[in-house]
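Ex. 9. Protein: Lipoprotein.
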Amino acid sequence: MSSITSRPTFRRFVGAVAAGVALAAVSGCTVPSDAVVGLSVTADGHLLGVMMVCGHHIDGATLYVDSEDVNKQVTVGSWTAARPRTSGLATWTLDAPAGGWTATKSLAPLTAKTTYVLYGWTKDNSWSADSVSFTLADLDRLTPGKVRYEGISKKGGTSAVTVSVAEFKAKACQNV
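Predicted structure tokens for Lipoprotein:
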């Protein structure tokens, strides 16, 4: 039986498939977002993680040093929920978690002039939470009852905003 496809055509086809596979492998596939993470402080000054889960679930949160160099993205704290957090607001103190949260990596001391990122995740990578970045100077401006998170502007960009807990609950899921 003779081949219908010539060798050069076959090689071009195999090359195109290989290029497509390589492109797919390096393209930045991300986990879909279904929650929003924010930060607040308690009345006695403890750092508080605040998460609005919009519909599915989140299993935990991680705080790391922000850096374009992946090797410098050091984890400074990580927390796991006792049960998946589903739709609604979840909070936990970062230095002494309670209310169904446990520290899988206790919070390390935060330092000045360092940018940190807090994000939420699921154990199976099915969902994530939009992250919030901050510095110690940003934390100094937080007051109890206020939440700092990455809001989406009317033009589609993101920027840190600080709002009441009630406004965070009402608006955080609108752009997820």
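Check your answer against this statement. Residues 9-28 have pLDDT under 50 and may be disordered.
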